[in-house]
């Protein structure tokens, strides 16, 4: 899965982890625990060129949720006790359509939360708008960004399809990390708006909710990591490609896979493009995740890691530095601290 990132550098900017740490420490969470969760030291956390994985950011956010007992991570007026989202989501999966689910969620949060004011506008264009009652508590806008990202991704999961964003707006000036938005919020993004919001085609409100409470239990176990990846649904061509790479070899090519599936490579390329992916990026993501796992869990030579990914050691070292901002050896040492 291609992660939320600058399109030319896979991974997530350390900006988001830095903001979380800066907020959580004054609220009583030990800095050593936070850095341990994200597997970074203070120097690497402050290094702008370093990029982290969805699992690293997810582990950090889970720790903050639990330690503060607050799903708003200290950025809102009052707390959302840990488990609030799960309570609301259980009712949403019982809805028959996405529109019914969204109407329930807006009522739920507007009744229970002193921090958030949601508004759902229906019609040819559906807009979900968010206002923070005390925006000064979120000076870096991480909460606004995260909530809009979360709701778009959760709605996609409910209906089992990626809903194209017609427009995303934010009620603040363009931030320094705005290049990250290209995959967070694909489509036109506007700043200095009256309200922060996302818009999709209104026809999506009639889409059936296809998930069950059993599906939701499994989904909740993967949060918040699930919010930080470009979504690939189980029955998609992209998911089949990732499974093929895992079952075969990282050296598998587009042409070889197309031949196995008895389609032309052009057809396979076109199917992936329709889902917003490419074979090259899926293979790159598979290699990165596999490399990180091998480096963290084992002590074998870097050359063996490269060989397992069907790469030469120099090519692997160059690629890994592009993915994370660190050499494979520096990555292993930093995460071992």
Automatic annotation (TrEMBL):
The keyword DNA-binding applies. InterPro entries: AraC-type_N, Homeodomain-like_sf, HTH_AraC. Coiled coil: none annotated. Residues 235-334 form the HTH araC/xylS-type domain. One of its GO terms (molecular function) is DNA-binding transcription factor activity. GO terms for cellular component: cytosol. Transmembrane segments: none annotated. SMART domains: HTH_ARAC. Keywords: DNA-binding, Transcription, Transcription regulation. It comes from the Bacteria. PROSITE patterns: HTH_ARAC_FAMILY_2 (PS01124). PANTHER family: HTH-TYPE TRANSCRIPTIONAL REGULATOR GADX (PTHR47894), HTH-TYPE TRANSCRIPTIONAL REGULATOR VQSM (PTHR47894:SF1). This is AraC family transcriptional regulator. It comes from Parahaliea maris. The lineage of its organism: Bacteria, Pseudomonadati, Pseudomonadota, Gammaproteobacteria, Cellvibrionales.
């Amino acid at each position: 899965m291609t992660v939320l990132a600058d399109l030319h550098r896979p991974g997530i900017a350390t900006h988001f982890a830095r903001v979380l740490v800066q907020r959580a420490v004054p609220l009583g969470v030990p800095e050593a625990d936070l850095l341990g969760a994200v597997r970074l030291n203070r120097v690497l956390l402050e290094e702008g060129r370093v990029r982290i994985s969805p699992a690293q950011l997810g582990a950090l956010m889970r720790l903050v949720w639990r330690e503060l007992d607050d799903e708003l991570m200290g950025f809102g007026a009052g707390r959302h006790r840990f488990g609030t989202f799960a309570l609301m989501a259980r009712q949403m999966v019982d809805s028959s359509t996405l529109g019914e689910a969204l109407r329930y969620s807006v009522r739920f949060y507007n009744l229970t939360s002193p921090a958030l004011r949601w508004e759902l506008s229906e019609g040819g264009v559906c807009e979900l708008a968010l206002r923070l009652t005390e925006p000064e508590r979120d000076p870096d806008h991480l909460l606004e960004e995260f909530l809009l990202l979360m709701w778009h991704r959760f709605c996609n999961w409910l209906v089992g399809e990626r809903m194209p964003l017609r427009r995303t707006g934010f009620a603040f000036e363009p931030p320094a990390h705005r290049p990250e938005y290209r995959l967070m919020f694909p489509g036109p993004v506007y700043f200095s708006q009256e309200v922060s919001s996302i818009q999709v085609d209104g026809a999506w409100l009639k889409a059936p909710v296809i998930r069950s409470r059993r599906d939701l239990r499994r989904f909740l176990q993967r949060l918040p990591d699930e919010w930080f990846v470009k979504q690939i649904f189980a029955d998609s061509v992209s998911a089949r490609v990732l499974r093929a790479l895992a079952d075969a070899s990282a050296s598998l090519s587009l042409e070889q896979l197309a031949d196995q599936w008895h389609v032309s490579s052009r057809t396979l390329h076109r199917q992936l493009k329709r889902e917003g992916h490419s074979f090259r990026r899926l293979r790159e993501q598979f290699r990165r995740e596999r490399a990180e796992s091998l480096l963290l869990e084992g002590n074998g030579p870097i050359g063996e890691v490269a060989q397992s990914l069907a790469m030469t050691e120099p090519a692997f070292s160059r690629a890994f530095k592009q993915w994370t901002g660190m050499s494979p050896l520096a990555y292993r040492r930093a995460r071992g601290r």
